[in-house]
Design brief:
alpha+beta, 3 helices
Amino acid sequence: MLDEELKSFALKVLRTPVQAPTANAYCERLIGSIRRECLDWVIPLNEKHLRRILREWVTHYNQGRPHASLGPGIPEQAKKPLPSPKYRRHELPEDCRIRIKDVLGGLHHEYRLEKIAA
């Protein structure tokens, strides 16, 4: 029954090998991240609401959330960061401003530099 539900999310079910305790470590890590960063803070009202929450969180996880293993970096960076060779690291370029995007109703935030239109 669980396998059919997972397939409805377009997921492929993989069987864990017998007596291989580290085989499902990646799955456990992802489920733990989903729980800690999302579901511990949001109460889904129904299945449709849960799917919408998870869809928004997955987009944030892949496109806006820094990952320590990437240095920290973002897995699917939508745009390249603005080059700033003549600016110091902690100074904001004069022709840019910081844009903030709320994720999951303000539970998380994404920040990026944006050029100011002239």
